[in-house]
Design a protein that fits this description.
It is a single chain. By secondary structure, this protein is an alpha/beta fold. Among the domains are: about 10-255, 3-Layer(aba) Sandwich (Rossmann fold); about 410-570, NAD(P)-binding Rossmann-like Domain (Rossmann fold). α15 (about 465-475) links the parallel β18 and β19 (about 480-485). α1 (about 15-25) runs parallel beside α2 and α13 packs across α19. The relative contact order is 0.08.
Length: about 625
């Protein structure tokens, strides 16, 4: 949801602490805010400040731009009246934030009261009132028939024990699981998330031992909490999510997808999909075959050769030996074979020869070295290191990515899937409601880009060459497929998108880059993830001149950004988990090119096939043809 003037929000506990900060932050966006709080003095003060912020966006309103409603959130009738008043004033409810919370000041087993500070009162405010307000917010949004976002303020003490106040910890833990269990409401356009900050400098934290706060890393800046809330509001892919914020680790979602898979029960079909058997031996051979680059050339076949090499024993400490099952083929294999990914002059690069080829693979751990205690022989893993065009490879354990299955679909998620996922999030800053153009969209990375853009709530346009590729893209949900063999891309974009395209995911280069730059909208972002049209030629990859580039992007406040996956390695695990979860839940499809390449001797054929322009989906080589598995059901 885009935070824009004219939206409305209701915030319980909005007169102090996190609630107050969020009230003011939303008002600064021109959003009408109803502050619901027990403190009349503070509530009126915040409402007054909100009105001043709103005055920058709205004039001549026939209704108040901010409201304060005095209310005890444990009184259902009063809370219902507050929601009703909000809707009467603003015509609906876009955002609800349940921030009211208290600590229990009396040790619960000695507590014989039922008033302020008692453990029963804490349960009613922190948990029961959150459930009640969430219920009313859902009903309000359902009645209006409009999408909405609900954020429940939890706490890090709802994720792990807080020994000083077990009642507070219990109520916040209840809020976390209650909220995450409301994930299905996303189908109605209602996203319900929970924000779990650690210690923030508020009156509530004043009751906690300062030494304990310091040992946890100190207070979190309130700005970080506001940023976290805004992320949950704006990111359409976040539903039923728990955002954990600490000073030590920053913002991260909890639990991780891999942790979730430990307890999620899959259907029998899914279980069948993720089972595998192998007739291949995991015994380590004395020698194995691999592909090395022996001369620098953009012609992959001429630059490489298959060599027999001896496995270096003993296995190095902290290392594992991986038996490669499938390796991925990438357009940039020819850049690697020509030495373009190494720094230094031609003599320096030539001195590296021979070097191992291949970027990505999946396989099984065949052996482990000393000091490797967290990985077992037979574990399916993915790797993204040089040397994947090999039957075996030795890799440091820090480069190992455990996966559910060593499937070709997982290979597709590596360089191709991760490039799309990270580039759209970090370089394109993609949100919802935009027009997104993907070039070469039926290829390995394009297929991910169109689906992720669509899942984020955007209109997706894609270019491709050929009827089969166009049919694939339509099946993936693309709104407008432009087959450049039948239509002129420039004419279509000019006619059907006269205001331009907001985000462009570009991998072709050359004339296509020029066309895309001219089709970019005001504030648009063009992300260059490659330039396959320039990789192979008489002189290889030659720099191009783009006269007037600065003047063009300056005139329309546009951004042209490059994206190179290696520089985002710290995000690989997080995004691979995310892609695998989307795939295993059926939200993401993975298209593999139907042509089969079997054995290490077929790698050069596969690279040339990818550059022929005939490939569709991800091109994968089965390095071990004896590997026996059940085909995945997409």
């Amino acid at each position: 949801m885009e935070l824009r003037p004219g939206l409305s929000a209701l915030i319980t506990g909005g007169a102090s602490g996190i609630g107050r900060a969020l009230s003011l932050a939303l008002a600064r966006k021109g959003i009408f805010v109803t502050v619901v709080d027990f403190s009349e003095e503070r509530g009126k003060e915040v409402a007054s400040l909100n009105e001043k912020e709103n005055a920058k966006f709205h004039s001549d309103l026939k209704f108040p731009s901010a409201l304060f409603i005095r209310c005890d959130v444990t009184n259902t009738r009063d809370v219902a009246a507050a929601f009703e008043k909000h809707v009467q004033t603003y015509g609906g409810l876009d955002i609800c934030i349940n921030s009211a919370g208290i600590a229990s000041s009396v040790v619960f087993y000695n507590d014989k009261t039922d008033g302020e500070g008692s453990w029963r009162r804490a349960v009613r405010v922190n948990l029961i009132a959150v459930i009640d307000c969430t219920r009313l917010a859902i009903q309000t949004m359902q009645t209006a028939g409009k999408p909405g976002v609900i954020i429940n303020i939890g706490s890090a003490s709802g994720l792990y024990p807080m020994y000083g106040d077990p009642i507070y910890s219990a109520t916040k833990g209840g809020v976390v699981l209650f909220t995450r269990s409301l994930y299905p409401y996303r189908r109605q356009g209602i996203r319900i998330n929970v924000l779990c900050p650690e210690f923030v400098d508020t009156e509530l934290s004043a009751k906690v031992d300062p030494k304990f706060i310091q040992s946890s890393g100190g207070f979190i800046p309130m700005e970080m909490v506001v940023d976290g809330a805004f992320e949950l509001i704006k990111d359409e892919s976040k539903a039923g999510k728990c955002l954990w914020i600490t000073e030590r680790r920053g913002m991260e979602y909890w639990p991780t997808p891999m942790e979730e898979r430990k307890y999620l029960v899959t259907s029998s079909q899914a279980k069948q999909r993720f089972s595998y058997t192998t007739k291949s031996s995991l015994e380590i051979p004395h020698t194995f075959r691999k592909i090395v680059v022996h001369t620098l050339s953009h012609n992959f076949r001429n630059a490489t050769e298959i060599v027999h090499t001896q496995l270096s024993l003993p296995i190095k400490p902290h290392h594992v030996v991986v038996k490669i099952i499938y390796a991925g083929v990438n357009a940039s294999d020819v850049n690697f074979s020509s030495g373009r990914y190494f720094s230094g002059g031609s003599k320096d690069i030539a001195s590296r020869l021979p070097f191992d080829a291949g970027f990505e693979a999946v396989g099984l751990i065949a052996a482990v070295g000393d000091l490797v205690n967290d990985l077992r022989i037979g574990t399916p893993v993915a790797i993204m290191t040089f040397g994947s065009y090999a039957e075996f490879t030795m890799v440091h354990k820090k480069h190992i990515l455990p996966v559910a299955r060593p499937d070709p679909e997982v290979v597709a998620m590596l360089t191709s899937g991760l490039t799309a996922s990270i580039a759209l999030e970090k370089a394109a800053l993609m949100d919802s409601g935009k027009v997104v153009l993907v070039t070469a969209a039926a290829g390995g990375t394009g297929q991910f880009a169109v689906q992720l853009a669509k899942l984020a709530g955007n209109k997706v346009v894609a270019t491709c060459g050929g009827e089969q590729k166009a049919a694939l893209l339509k099946a993936l949900g693309v709104d407008r497929v432009i087959d450049y063999r039948k239509e002129d891309v420039k004419s279509v974009l000019k006619k059907e998108f006269p205001k331009g395209v907001d985000i462009i995911y570009e991998s072709v280069g050359g004339e296509m880059f020029d066309l895309c730059l001219n089709a970019l909208a005001v504030y648009g972002r063009l992300i260059v993830i490659g330039m396959i049209s320039q990789y192979q030629g008489e002189h290889g990859w030659q720099p191009s001149n783009y006269t007037g580039l600065c003047e063009k992007i300056l005139a329309k406040s546009q951004t042209v950004a490059g994206f190179f996956l290696v520089q985002y390695s710290h995000l690989w695990k997080e995004h691979l988990d995310r892609l695998f979860d989307l795939y295993s839940s059926g939200k993401l499809k993975v298209s593999l090119d139907p042509r089969k390449f079997s054995g290490i001797s077929s790698v050069a054929d596969a690279v040339e096939y990818l550059h022929s322009g005939r490939s569709q989906g991800k091109v994968v080589v089965c390095i071990d043809p004896t590997f026996d598995q059940q085909p995945s059901k997409l």
